[in-house]
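Backbone geometry:
***
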Amino acid sequence: MANFIFTYDLNGTLPSHKAMDDHIIGLGFPCGRILETVWYIKYPGTLESLTALFTSILSPNDRYVLVDANRMSFNNLLIKHADITQTWARMG
């Protein structure tokens, strides 16, 4: 499994931030919000397949960045540091 960082800006009425939260969590993969609209996701597929899962809910006016990431540095995350570092370290 790979580690991904997903962040987005919503520029319309749909989806709402709650709908995005529910969608991301509903994918069923280990994840956590690390900043207000920045998420960590551990996903077994490709960047392209994860992109398709996110763009299925976003409107054409919304913006996003999805990063395939293997190393990290952070401070004062919204989730416990131990939670993300333990999950990040389990590669597979």
